[in-house]
Specification:
There is one protein chain. A hairpin with a 7-residue loop joins strand 4 and strand 5 (82-93). An eight-stranded mixed sheet has the order 1-2-3-4-5-6-8-7, sandwiched between helices. It starts with a strand and ends with a strand. It is 27% helix and 37% strand. The longest helix has 15 residues, at 102-116. By secondary structure, it is an alpha+beta fold. It has helices at 22-32, 39-48, 102-116, 131-139; strands at residues 5-9, 12-16, 54-58, 61-74, 82-93, 121-127, 143-148, 158-164. It binds acetyl coenzyme *A (ACO) and zinc ion. Acetyl coenzyme *A is lined by residues 32-33, 88, 90-93, 98-104, 124, 126, 130-133, 135-136, 139.
C-alpha cells in the first residue's frame, strides 16, 4: 500500500503507521525497550490516535516508531490550568540506526501532528538512567517538570519532561 510520507531523512521515510506495520513495530519495541505492550494496546492507540502513531522505515522495513496519545488535563508547563497535551507513550529506534536523526524526526513529526490536534504541549516519562533519551529530549527543548518514584516495574524512577509546541 502507498502511504503518505510525513518526512524524509536521507533513505529513511517517516509515515503514519498502519495495521500491517504493527508486528514489525512490536519487534522493534522488543529489541529496544524493557516496556512491552499487548497487541491490543498498539491497535487501540492506532485506532484512537492514528495521526501521531508514526513509523520510520528504511526501504519499507520499520526501524523505529513513535506512539502517542492526545490528552486533556493539568498542564505540565503552566502553574495552574488545563491543557491539551500530546503524550509520547513510546518512541524507539533500532540500535544500528541510531544517531542519524530518526528519533528527532519522529518526535518533531509527531509534535506537528499534535499541534494540528490543538495540543499546546508535549510530555513524556523517561527512566532516570536513560541518558541517551534524556539528552535527545533536552536537545529538543524538553524540560524536567516532575519525577515519579518507582514508576517502572523494576522500581526505577521516571523523569517527566515537557515542552511547549505549536507557535
Ligand atoms: N548522552 C546524552 N545524549 C545522547 C547520548 C548520550 N550518550 N546519545 C545520544 N544522545 C542524544 C543527543 O542529543 C543526540 O543528538 P546529536 O546526535 O545531535 O548529538 C541524540 O540523542 C540522537 O538523536 P537522534 O539521532 O535523532 O535519535 P536516535 O534516532 O538515535 O533515537 C532514541 C533516540 C529513540 C532515544 C534511541 O536512542 C532509542 O531507541 N533508545 C532505546 C529506546 C528508548 O530509550 N526510548 C525512549 C524511552 S522514553 C519514551 O519512550 C517516552
Ligand atoms: Zn510500512
Amino acid at each position: 500500500m502507498q502511504k503518505a510520507v510525513v518526512a524524509k531523512l536521507g533513505e529513511y521515510e517517516i509515515h503514519r503507521c498502519d495495521r500491517e506495520d504493527i508486528p514489525s513495530i512490536i519487534e522493534v519495541n522488543m529489541k529496544t525497550l524493557p516496556e512491552h505492550y499487548s497487541d491490543y494496546f498498539y491497535h487501540e492507540i492506532l485506532s484512537e490516535f492514528p495521526e501521531t502513531f508514526l513509523v520510520a522505515e528504511l526501504h519499507g522495513v520499520p526501524v523505529g516508531y513513535i506512539m502517542c496519545r492526545i490528552e486533556y488535563g493539568f498542564s505540565h508547563l503552566k502553574r495552574l490550568g488545563l491543557a491539551r497535551k500530546g503524550h509520547v507513550v513510546s518512541v524507539a529506534v533500532e540500535e544500528e540506526h541510531r544517531g542519524k536523526g530518526i528519533g528527532t524526526g519522529l518526535i518533531m513529526a509527531s509534535q506537528d501532528e499534535m499541534a494540528k490536534k490543538s495540543a499546546t504541549e508535549c510530555y513524556l516519562e523517561v527512566r532516570v538512567s536513560n541518558a541517551q533519551a534524556i539528552g535527545l529530549y533536552q536537545k529538543l527543548g524538553f524540560k524536567v517538570t516532575g519525577r515519579l518514584e518507582a514508576y517502572y516495574r523494576d522500581g526505577e524512577g521516571a523523569l517527566v519532561m515537557a515542552v511547549q509546541i505549536g507557535k
